[in-house]
What does this fold into?
Amino acid sequence: MRLTILGGGGFRVPLVYGALLGDHAEGRVTRVTLYDPDGARLSAVARVLADQAEGVPDAPAVTVTRDLDEALRGADFVFSAIRVGGLAGRAADERIALAEGVLGQETVGAGGIAYGLRTVPVATAVARKVAALAPDAWVINFTNPAGLVTEAMSRILGDRVVGICDSPVGLGRRVARVLGADPDEAWIDYVGLNHLGWLRGLRIGGRDELPRLLADEEALGSFEEGRLFGPEWLRSLGAVPNEYLHYYYFNREAVRAYRSAGRTRGAYLRDQQGSFYEEMARPGTAALAAWRRTLADREATYMAANREAAGAGERAEEDLEPGGYEKVALALMRAIARDERTTLILDVRNGSTLSVLDADAVVEVPCLVDANGARPVAAAPLPYHAVGLVTAVKAVEREVLAAAESGSRETAVKAFALHPLVDSVTVARRLVEAYAAEHPGLAYLRN
Ligand code: G6P
Ligand code: MN
It folds into this structure.
């Protein structure tokens, strides 16, 4: 099997490669092609992978290229993990939104819309190339905002593109752990959009164990989402929301924490990753050690502003260990390549799963996966308040897709203005002006 990684010079590529190194079974990935427009980043990551492969006799062979066509031809799987505008772009997304007093986050609110507006045209062009050069390949999309970008690509690739996110998996695992259940045995009832979903139940042998957790104050205080949202609010909801819902349910506090932080998440990562790639450009740098150090720091500070706003404290040891993201990707590839039937929470087209959305809307739900791809399973209806959020945000995504297609600035304004976390049409207009002035990738937006 040959895997191509778009954004191959990205910081999280070694996580994926590390997972591949642990797979020795037949049908595994034997060749990895890293594609990235940035040669320096490519060689930095290639050095980390070479260190990782040391002493592993059947390590997948790695090649690097700056030619997208070459990268795609002959690929069985394509991972798309690109960042249009880089981390400097992410920091600008946050800064511009916060200056207007609204949330600037990579995937949620105004920041997510700005990022989506510049990523969708690029992801669409990639999808067209895949359709032309590797029509039988499966595309696994990590690129954020993952739900929106997957939907854009699915308009060209249909069910050949599947989006992934590790946060519902992480949530399911944490809840299972607190309940003393085996996460692989439990049925996790999780439904929503990417970064906008709820764990509504966890069934073992047909019995829902979530009420037991909701009734247990101490257990609720012992895991990330419990501390972030507080036991009372979880009981009110009767569900455990995805951590990204903190931006909705505690929006004021999150915006305030972001504004008063010395640096936003994007700015912090821009600087941190900048130093990493600089360090890697120096000969003699111990590549794997430098990467591990940088990763540990990144994991420890994940959602730090939100945790601070909630008084949730430091991240727990067991939540620090990375292992979600690449495990989901590997599990998905194995299921498809070897026809090993499994269930995973993925971003796929809705079909008839949630009746409040049309069939083409990409949702994040449990799916049955095998050689035929990923199929969402039926889900119980969402309560009205969740329907409200999910349909409002899907409406925003549709305006982003329409703006990317037409180049209409007015449509882009509509996308911002309709978002539940943008509180005025005037603000939406100013945001579009400021983002368009900042990002060359938004030059396509015209009056
Ligand atoms: C979670 C999210 C991802 C996101 C990642 C890293 O895993 O599900 O979508 O890319 O966190 O966030 P960071 O702020 O460290 O870039
Ligand atoms: Mn995610």
